Amino acid sequence: MANKKRPTARKAHKKGPTKGSGGKGRRSLRGKGPTPKAEDRVYHPAHQRKLERERRRQGKNSGPTNELVVGRNPVIECLEAGVPALRLLVAQGTGHDERLSKAVDLATKDNVPIDEVPRFELDRRAGNTLHQGIGVEIPPYQYATPRDLLDAAHQSGEPGLVVMLDNITDPRNLGAVIRSTAAFGGHGVIIPERRTAAVTAVAWRTSAGTAARLPVARATNLNRTIKEFQKENYQVVGLEAGGDATLDDYDATTPVLLVIGSEGKGLSRLVRENCDTLLSIPTADWVESLNASVAAGAVLSEFARQRRAERRPRG
């Protein structure tokens, strides 16, 4: 019997795409690896919290660490103001412009070392990528004492004008108050030792370098410091809405300690009770309150105007 021919298997011809790409898309599929943790991404808020935890942990075991002021204009302002700079950091690959050249020239003139560092290193130090490729490292701020401010005012031969901050926790507010106090002839700023904004890199930057020239003092107890100024014949004036005097009719030509609270909390109870006068700033009825640094600028400007008028020859 003749052998029957077995049917051959038919090949299946699929239409459409086949599985895989033959290795052609292997590189694109590989990707960039796993997504980094949030705390390792310099632009993420979790990274800021990580840096803050590290700073606190370091602070338990060592003294204050150096600060870093970043940004081309802030760096120039600090160098021009004579900030005690330790070194100028420039990120590798940073494009040169007039401001960068000026910062380098100022650093060279003052014998400040200039280091070129990898960009990621400046990202890490600054806590973000908004440093414009440049930063200046400065030592921890050296605080004065309230007594130092009294002595400085006495030696100036002018009526003392000192600003005290109560419940101010934003370093940008502190920097802005330092700048206004310097601009309007004040002799210094007093802050409490605890639970307050300190002169950090943010305050340095906001003060536009004036923190290098205007002394900032730390007080162990604000109420004891107030009494010390009162013994030196200072009028202690607390800023508060609805105070017993207004800026329009207050005579600020005598020594004044101006006390400013936060926009939210205002003055502490004991601080308020120890003030000689509570002063309000006339504003439009629909404006509830002013930011602490804005209020300080308005009052200090008026006090400076009165003192200029007092020195003007009468005739």
From TrEMBL:
Biased composition (Basic residues): 1-17
Xref: Gene3D superfamilies: 3.30.1330.30, 3.40.1280.10
EC top class, as a word: transferase
Keywords, in A-Z order: Methyltransferase, Transferase
Gene Ontology cellular component terms for the protein in this record: cytosol
One of the record's GO molecular function terms: RNA binding
InterPro entries xrefs: Alpha/beta_knot_MTases, Ribosomal_eL30-like_sf, rRNA_MeTrfase_TrmH, SpoU_MeTrfase, SpoU_subst-bd, tRNA_m1G_MTases_N
Signal peptide: none
One GO BP annotation of this record: methylation
Residue ranges of the region described as Disordered: 1-68
EC number: 2.1.1.-
Ranges annotated as biased composition (Basic and acidic residues): 37-55
CDD domains per the UniProt record, alphabetical: SpoU-like_RlmB
Residue ranges occupied by any RNA 2-O ribose methyltransferase substrate binding domain in the UniProt entry: 68-144
Record-stated family: Belongs to the class IV-like SAM-binding methyltransferase superfamily. RNA methyltransferase TrmH family.
PANTHER family: 23S RRNA (GUANOSINE-2'-O-)-METHYLTRANSFERASE RLMB
Full protein name: RNA methyltransferase, TrmH family
Organism (species): Corynebacterium otitidis ATCC 51513
Lineage: Bacteria, Bacillati, Actinomycetota, Actinomycetes, Mycobacteriales
